[in-house]
Amino acid sequence: DCNCCGVKVSAVIPEFSNPSVCMKDPQRVQDIMESMAKAGSNTVQVISDFDMTLTRFAYNGKRCPTCHNILDNSDLVSEECKEQLKELLDTYYPIEIDCSRPVDEKLPLMVEWWTKAHALLVQQRIKKDHLALVVRESDAMLRDGYQLFFDHLHEHSIPLLIFSAGIGDILEEVIRQAKVFHPNINVFSNYMDFDDCGVLRAFKGELIHIYNKREGALLNSGHFEELRARPNVLLMGDSLGDLNMADGVQDMENILKIGFLNDKVEERKQSYLDSYDIVLVKDETLVVPNGVLLYLT
Ligand code: TMP
Ligand code: MG
Question: What does each of the 297 residues of the chain score in pLDDT, given as a tens digit?
Fold first, then answer.
């Protein structure tokens, strides 16, 4: 039975009986999975968020850093800047996870957060050469099971699109240092722009924040055009803004949405159940997504 609602979950995969798993409509999940499995793994693509989806939310009771936090906590930024970034985080993160405020009210505030944070980072004259060390020394952790996740997708030539409002240079480094940055991966994110001396001078292109992933997907329609033969999507996110990451996929046949509910569980559970097919409550692992992938391949 589903742990939160008592609905019968058919034993599609054993991982669905894990205590973290909640579904509003288990039958729908089963139907989507059967339909995707029947179509074959060569019709599947995976679209995933990065921070707090592929990375852990917490470890031993301590919060793990986002891409931005990796820089914020490093000695690449001054003490004064650290304080200002911390102040931004304390102001805007509660707004990000506040489900009582509508998205159209939160959106301009999120743009404000990203814009201010990026402006502060640009003032710090961060050197490209220092990023790898800062990532190595950080507490960033991919979720348990990441090796199977990344390697399995690669072995089965399933494209993985990582769509992140974090920082592309940082997230690539996290994945590279974990030795799973395989050629089936594409990244849409905020990339740093360095001057000729390798000093950060701006962020490239259109800003990606948590609520414009739809626009980002449509801007990158060329990517999805290339994957036209893959109309079956496994989507993974931790924010309701992540639900639009697949909006650039043309002629979609099936989409299975897996959402990590890491924080403010009681307040947000219903809205997550209403929009994600599978909700993983305080689950720090990729065990369930891996179970789904093994079933599909
Ligand atoms: P994601 O789309 O890869 O999950 O990245 C977005 C996360 O980054 C979001 O949860 C908020 C977080 N963030 C920070 O931690 N610090 C910052 O300065 C900014 C702008 C965002
Ligand atoms: Mg996220």
Answer: 566 655 555 568 999 999 999 999 999 999 999 999 999 999 999 999 999 999 999 999 999 999 999 999 999 999 999 999 999 999 999 999 998 999 999 999 999 999 999 999 999 999 999 999 999 999 999 999 999 999 999 999 999 999 999 999 999 999 999 999 999 999 999 999 999 999 999 999 999 999 999 999 999 999 999 999 999 999 999 999 999 999 999 999 999 999 999 999 999 999 999 999 999 999 999 999 999 999 999
161's CB contacts (< 8 A; 6+ apart) are 45, 46, 47, 48, 185, 186, 187, 188, 223, 245
**Which residues sit with their C-beta closer than 6 Å to ligand 1?**
49-52, 66, 68-69, 88-89, 96, 113-114, 117, 164-166, 210
**What is the best residue among 209, 210, 215, 243 to mutate for testing ligand 1's pocket, by most ligand atoms within 8 Å of CB?**
210
Helices within 47-78 (DSSP H only): 67-72
Whether pTM exceeds 0.90: yes
To the query of whether residue 49 is one of the catalytic residues in this protein, the response is: yes
CA-wise closest residue to 295 among 18, 26, 32: 32
165 CA: nearest ligand 1 atom: 2
In terms of C-beta density within 10 A (0-12 exposed, 13-18 middle, 19 or more buried), how is residue 181 classed?
middle
CA distance 91 to 270: 25
